[in-house]
C-alpha cells in the first residue's frame, strides 16, 4: 500500500487505488452483508489501497440511512479496516448527512465523501456552500476529514473553483480532498493547480496516470471493482518507462464499460466471475442488463483480459 | 370547493386549486409546525380546494423522513383535513418512499404525490417502472391513491407516455393522477388525451385555464401560496366570457416570480405580508434572496396586486 503524501496535503486515509465498491444485494434487494465484506476484503488484498463505500456505484442513494449505517457497521465488524474506508454520506437532507457522517466517524473511517444536496437544480453557490458549512459546523469535530464529491452529471450541482476555494479557506483542516467524477480533465487539473493542499482523486481510471504525473492522489472508480490489480500496478510504478502501455489497457477496459449502464454491467461481470447470480440484483431505478446488452458486453469484453475475485 | 369529476376519473382528493405549500421554518431551520398549520388553514379558507404538502416548493427533499412524518402528523392534529392533502412521498430510496407513503395513508390523506428516484440520470424506463411498481406492491393497499410527479428539470427522469401507459395499465385503481411540472403544455395535452381516466394537474397556473378547457383537474402550484383567491376565481367560473382576463393577470404574476429563485421569492413575500421574518428561513441548498434580488422583486411586484394571508 502506497501512502505517498503530496507536500502540505493531509488525510488519514491512504492515497492510491480505490474501488467505488458495488453493493451486493439479496434477492429481496437488501444489502448482502456477507458478500459485501467478502468483496471488500478481496479488493484490499488485490490492489486496492482503500475502498469508497456507498458512492454512486454503491447505489448509495437507493438505501435508507438505517440500511447504510447497518451495512457499514457490519463491514467493520467483519474486519474491513475502517481507516481504509471512504464513506459516502451526502444526502439531500442536512439531518441525514449529519447523521451518516457522525456515524461513520464514530466507526473510525478514514474519511467521508460528501455529495451536495442534489434535488434542486440551478441553486447558487451560497446555498451549496451553506449545505457543506452546516455539516462541518454541526459535527464540530476535529477528527472530521471530508472529501467533496463533484459529479455534475448526476447532481446537476457542479462544485466550481470559487466554491471549493471558499470551503477550503473556511475549513482548511476538514476539507482534505475531492473526488472529481465530472470526466473533464481540465477541471481536475484546475483543482490540482489551484488547491495544492487538496487530494484530488479522478472518478475514472482513464486519468489515473495523467493525474498522478501532476501530483494527483490516485483514483476512485467504479470499474476498479474489476481492474484493481492492473490499476495498482500502474500506481505502483507510474514513473517507469512502459507504464503508458498498462494505462492504455486500463483505459480501454473503462471505455468498454462506459458504453453500458455501468452498475448493471459491473454486477453482471461479478456474477459471471464469482458464479454467484445474486450479484446481478440491483435496486430500482437501476435495472439489470437485458439480453441484448449482455451479449454486446460479453462480445466487447471477450478480447480484454482483466481480473475479478 | 368544486369536486367536479371527469368521466371515468377516480380520486378521493378534491380537484381544483392546490397550493404546493411552502414549509415555514424556525430560525434553527426546523419545521415551524404552528406557522405551517396557520398557512394551510388560511389557504383552505382562501380559495384552495386542497394542499400539496412536501412537494418541491415545500423543500421536501431537504427534510428527513422523520421530520416529514412529524410535520404531517402535527398538521392533521391541527385540524387540517387530511383528505384535502396531497402528500409528497417520493424519495431516492425505496424503503423511504414506502415508509412515507404508508404513514401518509394511515393518516387518511387524499393522495400521495410520488417523484421517481432522482439521483441517477439516464436510467431506462424499466427501472423507473420498477421503482413505482415496487411501492404499489409493497403497500398492497386498496386505499392507495397515487399521483405521479413529472418534473424532469429537477429529477432528470421524465415520465413519458409509454411509462405512464405501463403504470396505469398495471395499476388502474391506484395511479389516479399526475402533477406535470415540466412546463411543456404539449406533454400535458398528450397525457390528457392519451389517459382520459387520469387527473392531470399542471404545475404552473399559466396553463390553468387552457387545461381546464381540455378537462384538466385544476392546478397544483408554488405561486398559489400567494394567488389562491385569483386562481380559485378562474377555476370557479372558467366558462364565463371574461375569465381570460383573469387568467392573464394570473399568468403575469407567475411569470414575474419565475424570474427569481421561486421558493426564496415566495418566502420573502410571505414574510413581508405577514410581518413574520421567520418566513424567510430556508434550508440549504436553497438560499434567501440577496438585497439586489429583493429590490428587483419588489419593483417587479409593485404594479401587480395579489392577496396573501
Main features:
eight-stranded parallel β-sheet, homodimer, 309 residues, disordered N terminus, TIM Barrel, alpha/beta
Fold-level CATH name of chain A: TIM Barrel
CATH architecture of chain A: Alpha-Beta Barrel
Considering residues with a beta carbon less than 8 A from a beta carbon on another chain, report the largest interface and each chain's count.
A-B, 40 and 40 residues
Number of strands of chain A: 8
In terms of quaternary structure, the protein is: homodimer
Structural class of chain A: alpha/beta
Label the overall shape of chain A: globular
In total, the number of domains of chain A comes to 1
Q: What percentage of amino acids of chain A are in beta strands?
A: 5-15%
Assign the CATH class of chain A.
Alpha Beta
Helix content of chain A: 40-55%
Find the CATH superfamily of chain A. Aldolase class I
Distance between the termini of chain A: 19 Å
Mean pLDDT metric of chain A: 95
Set out the fold topology.
The structure is a homodimer of 309-residue chains.
Chain A: E1 16-20, H1 33-45, E2 50-53, H2 65-77, E3 85-88, H3 94-106, E4 111-114, H4 125-139, E5 146-150, H5 152-155, H6 161-170, E6 175-180, H7 185-194, E7 199-202, H8 208-212, E8 218-221, H9 224-236, H10 243-257, H11 262-274, H12 291-302
Parallel strand pairs in A: 1-2, 1-8, 2-3, 3-4, 4-5, 5-6, 6-7
Helix pairs in contact in A: 2-3, 3-4, 4-6, 9-10
Amino acid at each position: 500500500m502506497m501512502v505517498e503524501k503530496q507536500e502540505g496535503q493531509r488525510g488519514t486515509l491512504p492515497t492510491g487505488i480505490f474501488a467505488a465498491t458495488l453493493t451486493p444485494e439479496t434477492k429481496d434487494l437488501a444489502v448482502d452483508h456477507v458478500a459485501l465484506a467478502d468483496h471488500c476484503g478481496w479488493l484490499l488484498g488485490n490492489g486496492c489501497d482503500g475502498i469508497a463505500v456507498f458512492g454512486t456505484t454503491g447505489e448509495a442513494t437507493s438505501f435508507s440511512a438505517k440500511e447504510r449505517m447497518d451495512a457499514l457497521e457490519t463491514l467493520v465488524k467483519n474486519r474491513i479496516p475502517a481507516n481504509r474506508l471512504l464513506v459516502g454520506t451526502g444526502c439531500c437532507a442536512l439531518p441525514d448527512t449529519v447523521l451518516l457522517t457522525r456515524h461513520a466517524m464514530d466507526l473510525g473511517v478514514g474519511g467521508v465523501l460528501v455529495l451536495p444536496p442534489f434535488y434542486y437544480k440551478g441553486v447558487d453557490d451560497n446555498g451549496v456552500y451553506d449545505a457543506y458549512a452546516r455539516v462541518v459546523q454541526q459535527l464540530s469535530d476535529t477528527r472530521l476529514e471530508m472529501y467533496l464529491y463533484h459529479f455534475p452529471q448526476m447532481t446537476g450541482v457542479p462544485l466550481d473553483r470559487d466554491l471549493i476555494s471558499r470551503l477550503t479557506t473556511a475549513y482548511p483542516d476538514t476539507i482534505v480532498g475531492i473526488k472529481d467524477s465530472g470526466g473533464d480533465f481540465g477541471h481536475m487539473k484546475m483543482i490540482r493547480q489551484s488547491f495544492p493542499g487538496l487530494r484530488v482523486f479522478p472518478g475514472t481510471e482513464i486519468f489515473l496516470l495523467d493525474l498522478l504525473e501532476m501530483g494527483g492522489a490516485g483514483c476512485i472508480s467504479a470499474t476498479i471493482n474489476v481492474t484493481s490489480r492492473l490499476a495498482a500496478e500502474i500506481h505502483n510504478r507510474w514513473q517507469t518507462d512502459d507504464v503508458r502501455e498498462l494505462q492504455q489497457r486500463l483505459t480501454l477496459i473503462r471505455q468498454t464499460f462506459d458504453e453500458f449502464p455501468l452498475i448493471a454491467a459491473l454486477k453482471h461481470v461479478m456474477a459471471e466471475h464469482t458464479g454467484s447470480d445474486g450479484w446481478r440484483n440491483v435496486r430500482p431505478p437501476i435495472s439489470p442488463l437485458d439480453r441484448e446488452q449482455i451479449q454486446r458486453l460479453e462480445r466487447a469484453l471477450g478480447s480484454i483480459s482483466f481480473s475479478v475475485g
